[in-house]
Amino acid sequence: MTADREKLYEGKAKILYKGPDAGTLIQYFKDDATAFNAQKKAVLDGKGALNNLISAHLFPALGALGIPHHFIERISDREQLIKQVQIVPVEVIIRNVAAGSICSRLGLTEGAPLPKTLIEFCLKDDALGDPVIAAEHIDVLGLATPFEMDEIVEMSLRINDFLSGLFMAIGVKLIDFKLEFGRLETEDGVQIVLADEISPDNCRLWDSDTDEKMDKDRFRRDLGGLVEAYSEIARRLGLSLS
Q1: What CATH number is given for 2-83 in this structure?
Q2: Helix 226-236 to helix 47-64 angle, to the nearest 10 degrees?
Q3: Helices (H), 76-197
Q4: Distance between CA atoms of 189 and 153, rounded to whole angstroms?
């Protein structure tokens, strides 16, 4: 039970506990929903279990493509066993279609396809509102080396290609999504690996036929039915909590 474990960190959507072995953590998925840098909050029963289920399905699929990651196994409805990594304090946003903040920042029309995949970087800092930064900022601030960022960008584009095809096959458009990466200590040195989660919490997913939103925008925009939408994504992926 999580009550018996040592809590190391609690974020807006997840809690990290000390794992059973050295170099491992237990990642617990909460039902908390937040938006606008946690200015809007709610508890939506079942959200955490669905995010855990979906993320635990996608990480091994990416691993089979050669994408290194922190995921080890799903150990309960709300928990994953993961490798302990040092998170790179840069959020990577991969955009295929204009939506969300980029529309208000750059005057783009929501739903307009971008002529090519766009990658943006944000400083991972809640107090500052996770501002958009350039690669030069990352280098000057020492957040990651140019070599590490080359690896991160290359992996992000491969992940985008795979996920876009996977979701297209189940009638869903991958509009944009956020990734986080970490540094993993290995026998051969430090390796950059995919971390955090991949779920409807950090992906914009629209139904291919209707453009109905099937992601956290249902909470951001007071559309309702968030858990039902996440459940539908899981169902289309062939996943079940039972």
Answers
A1: 3.30.200.20
A2: 30
A3: 101-106, 135-140, 146-168
A4: 20
Above pLDDT 70, what percent of the chain? 98
CATH class, range 86-224: alpha beta
Strand order in the sheet with 71-74: 7-10, 14-18, 24-29, 79-83, 71-74
> How far is residue 46's CA from residue 22's CA, in Å, rounded to a whole number?
30
Q: Domain boundaries in the chain?
A: 2-83, 86-224
**Radius of gyration of the chain, Cα coordinates, nearest whole angstrom:** 17
What stretches in the chain show pLDDT beneath 70?
1-3, 242
Count the alpha carbons within 13 Å of 172 in the hemisphere toward its beta carbon.
Answer: 23
For residue range 18-37, list pLDDT tens digits in order.
Answer: 999 999 999 999 999 988 87
User: pTM for the whole thing?
Assistant: 0.95
State the DSSP string of 31-59. SEEEETTTTEEEE-TTHHHHHHHHHHHHH
| Rounded-to-integer distance, Cα 12 and Cα 108, Å | 29
